[in-house]
Amino acid sequence: MGAAPGVGKTYKMLGEAQRRRERGTDIVVGYVETHGREHTAAMLDGLEVVSRKIIDYRGASFTEMDLDAVLARRPEVAIVDELAHSNVPGSRNAKRWEDIDALLTAGIDVISAVNIQHLESINDVVEKITGVPQQETVPDRVVRAADQIELVDMTPEALRRRMAHGNVYAADKIDAALGNYFRVGNLSALRELALLWLADRVDAGLQQYRSQHDIDSTWEARERVVVALTGGPEGETLIRRAARIAARSSGGDLLAVHITRSDGLTGANPTALAQQRALVESLGGTYHQVVGEDIPDALLSFARAENATQLVLGGSRRSRLTALFTGPGIGSSAIRESGDIDVHIVTHSEMGRGRLPRMHGSLSRRRLIYGFMLAVVLPPLFAFLFSIGDDRLNLTSNVLAFLFAVVVVALVGGLWPALLTAIAGTLVLNWFFTPPKRSFTITEPNNALALGIFVLIAALVSSVVDRAARRTRQAARSAAESETLATLAGSVLRGETALPALLERVREAFGMTSACLMERIDTDELTETWRPLASAGTPTCRRPEDGDAEIPGRDDLVLVLQGRSLAADERRLVGAFAAHAAALVDKARLSEAAAEAKPLAEADKLRTALLRAVGHDLRSPLASAKASVTSLRSSDVDWTDEERDELLETADESLDRLTRLVDNLLDLSRLQAGVLPVFTRPMALDEIMPGALAELGERAADITVDIPHTLPLADADPALLERVLANLLANAVRYSPAGKPPLLTGSSLGDVVEIRVIDRGPGIPRDERDRMFAPFQRLGDTDNTTGVGLGLALARGLAEAMHGSLQPEDTPGGGLTMVVSLPVATLKASDAPVPGSRERSEGRG
What we know:
Blueprint: H1 9-22, E1 27-31, H2 38-42, E2 48-49, E3 53-57, E4 60-64, H3 67-73, E5 77-80, H4 96-105, E6 109-111, H5 123-130, H6 140-144, H7 156-164, H8 171-179, H9 184-212, E7 224-229, H10 235-247, E8 253-260, H11 270-282, E9 286-291, H12 295-305, E10 310-314, H13 320-326, H14 330-337, E11 342-346, H15 365-388, H16 395-413, H17 415-433, H18 445-493, H19 499-509, E12 514-523, E13 528-537, E14 549-554, E15 557-562, H20 568-633, H21 641-673, E16 681-683, H22 689-694, E17 704-706, E18 714-716, H23 718-735, E19 743-749, E20 752-758, H24 791-801, E21 805-810, E22 816-823, E23 828-829, E24 832-833, H25 838-843
Parallel strand pairs: 1-2, 1-5, 5-6, 7-8, 7-10, 8-9, 10-11, 17-19
Antiparallel strand pairs: 3-4, 12-13, 12-15, 14-15, 16-18, 19-20, 20-22, 21-22, 23-24
């Protein structure tokens, strides 16, 4: 792969062929284009070259790779140049990559070459950068399927030097190439595209290798910065700091994550999170939401799963007093468990100004430990204190004090530590403070009643505290589920309707290895047949039984998850996701049905417009011709020769108008049906100019023609191109003011030939330009004598049928310029390039 033509892909490929031949590999050259470069041609010495196949097309002979000959030869490796090349009509396949597919199917390895601008996914990006549309493309999947991809790299300055020395293009092409396609800016952008595309593929391969080998440790192949968001006011500071860290390394990734867990972070502000998400995405990062039981553990698990190298956390907003009672915070725990992930604690203006919203909706292990510690310490402590003042306190005071201890322990540790305190307090009260002392015997009924009520109250208080904790936990869980569902619903409302993206969110949020939406397509009494509609993660399930959890979306749809079993409350939440997925499937199918119905509606609309538009235009010439012929046949009037000639001329003009109208209608209908025959061939523009001007008759004298003879040949259908230009010139003549005739000129840029029809008329507003190409559209022109408004619609359709385009532009100083763009001829006859086509051939790399 190369960033641009001329970087040395073919030379490198032939060098690899020579090395393999020397190692004893059976290798042949199926097709190589040397472009006349002597050093490249020299690399063919010693290599077996399969003769090319000669194809006759429209009176000319062209050569292509002889696929059948290579298959019959059956080498181990075949060299096939120009992966994105379009074959001559009459070849076995339309594209060369399809030829390569046939070789691979036959067990023959293939080495090929391609430029980054020919990849389908970035074709539009390349056109924006260079201004040159690429007519030949190859699907990304074809290139991604390669076992190995090697980038042949060269700096823009070095490539321009190669061109200046005549090592890439012929001398007459060098100046134009250096000033247009091969500018330093263009080459730098193409080089960056190539490097980034290849880096993404390498990264995908690395992630797959890590997954296959269960590698959880961080490999610092690329900086990946994870920033943790709580929805607090410090979020924007953290995001910008993390973005700067990621920007220090070229190709660094920024990932923002918000942890929603069943027992906490109920104080997150959804509005703030939405704003922070928008900021992350504006900085080129991605936003993620994960459900986790323990925030530090969930953060680090997410970071390791994404092969993150750095974790950015905000300094704690808790006060020192709060930190003293609640122990180490998230930052300290993350630092302790981070391993080889660097943890950044970022200071901000909110540090130490309060405490985070309550993080524990249920009793954590820390609180249980504190509760049991108090249960062990408080009864002996109270016994010691009360024994000092034994003569001043009675049993009632002692019971109330121990009841206070039980309530304190219940508030801290919940039910079981409080019950332990109650039992220990009862024993201490009975032994030390209930007569007879130093004995578990109780002689006074009142004392027994007091101790019994004490135990009962302690149990009730502990139960109430524990129940409140469970209710708090349930409320926190519900809030977490609602927040996750709100995020999901927001994604759908924002238009993120792709099923794989939805399933990736489900997989990520619940910590699964894969998520797959499956549809039942057939069932009988014994078996059911399922097919996956979309999936995220690996491995992909083929049946619902392959997963650890299956959640129905509806009767024929099921969401299958792999990774772990789901709790009951998690299944309820995943059920909502499954319902969303089912709704997306229905929406997609409704959209497909609407798309299928749209052509019918358009056809009906077109039919109605046709009937309205052609009513007058069919009747008018018919009526004129009929009246003229009837008059001529009349025996009642003795016509003079002059009058007879005038009537014949009227009939002839009317029938000509009728013929043009019918031809246009038929051609437009053939275009819309896709059956218009198109026969393109290499042709010079001056071939069709006389015919196009002849259709205008006397009006052609008002047109200025300036077509350079040095233009390369265009790949076009002469008859169709003649009609396109005739329509455009007729419009230009009609709207050009007196004394300012239209101009017809041509130029070339890269692999495109452009024909411009320039007038100095009133022009057309930009917001009306798309509408002017609609059939039966005159943009307010009520003059029916000039046609039904088919000219521009037909001209654009014919241009696109020849793989070209028709676009309007403003004429400097006022007016409208219609630009017809056609591909430069790429076909080569008898192993020799078609004159003027070398630049196009080179553009394919």
